[in-house]
Every structure is written in structure tokens, then in C-alpha cells.
Model the fold of this input.
Amino acid sequence: MRKMLVTAFLFTIKISFASDLFISALNDTTITKNEYKISKKGFLEKYVRDDSSRALINFYFRKRGAGKIVFFFNAPIASFFLYLGLGIALGNSQSNFGLVIAEIVIYDILAGAFMFVAFGAITWIKYARKKLLWQLNAYFSGQSLPKKIAMSKAFKRFLKGPDK
Done:
């Protein structure tokens, strides 16, 4: 029984190792950790093979940049209104109608700013360089681009026009 388990285990390892070698042989591009750090220019120089790959790289970097801008623009706003709201809440020993209205307005702005911070962070993570490399590997190995990306207006714009 023990020999059978050891044989099955070794056979499983052998198959998974062989499949990894086969899959990496099929893919033209191999991903290393340093490739996650290259710039847009580096991506365009290394991975552009046709108009679709160029449009995909430009699409990802545009979305990623928009997420960064939303995140970094709203993070200071959210922290300022959090500080301001906590200052009013902690310093408010008596109930004053003006302070209550100010707290409501501040907390509404704070909630909106935190929603934008979360939205920016999610967009920034969703269009990470790592996912772009996965998408390029899939595309270069013969898979089509996801419908959500291929049908988007931004991707079609990048497909038609020059890089901007």
C-alpha cells in the first residue's frame, strides 16, 4: 500500500512538472519577477506584436493610471475630513445645531471620499502589470481577449488611433 502511494505521488509530480514544461514551451513569453516592474515603454518595446497587443498595453496603463489618480487625489481629502470630523465629534460636549449639521456634511464628504479611494484602489489593482502579463501570455498563446476588454470603447479607440 505504501509503495502504491509513493508511486502515485511521484507520478503526480512527474505529470505536473511535464505539463508545466509543456505550457511554458507553448508560451513565447515567460514571466519573471523583474517584468512586473517595467514601464509602459518597456512593455511596448518587449511585448508589442500587433495592433491588439499594443492597444491592450495602452488600455491597461490608461486604466491603471486613472485608478492611481483617483486613489492619490482622494486619500488626502478623506484623511482631512476624517481628522476634521473626529475633531468636531470629540470636541462637541454640548449639542449645537450648527455643529450637528457640520458633522453631517463632513461625514457625507468623508464617505464619498473613502468610496473614491476604494474605487481607485480597486481599479489600480484590477489593471495591475501582473494581470497585463497574464493577459498578454494568454493572447500570444492563441486565446482571444476577454469580451469586456475587446468591446470597450477605450480599447477600440486604442486599436484605431495612435498612442497617446
